[in-house]
Amino acid sequence: IQQLARIRSEYKALSRGGRQTLSVDGDFWAYQASCQDERFDDLIVVINRGDAPRNNIGVPPGRYIDLLTDQELNENSNLAARSMLILKRVQHFYKLLICLLKMLYLIQQD
Length: 110
Known about the structure:
This protein has helices at 2-10, 12-16, 92-109, and strands at residues 18-25, 28-34, 43-48, 63-66, 72-74, 83-89. By secondary structure, the chain is of the alpha+beta class.
């Protein structure tokens, strides 16, 4: 719960934004949260309340980072039963930043 609260406070689209449904059925909902302000990132929330995994997470094509696990996903990723994702679109600079942080970490280890 603390992790969800941290993400909600860090990403204003979740606390102040509107929602646009991307995909929905009985036990599944994918929506984009946006606060219509370029200073803040849009996020996609994907919820699977069902007892079976979901093979199509119903998001636009692209690369995403799940803010709950830091795992990189795409539109073809699967979602486990009774789970959720909070996705942020990967920007090209994000990969560069990760590489730089890893290099910095390795330099500090020496």
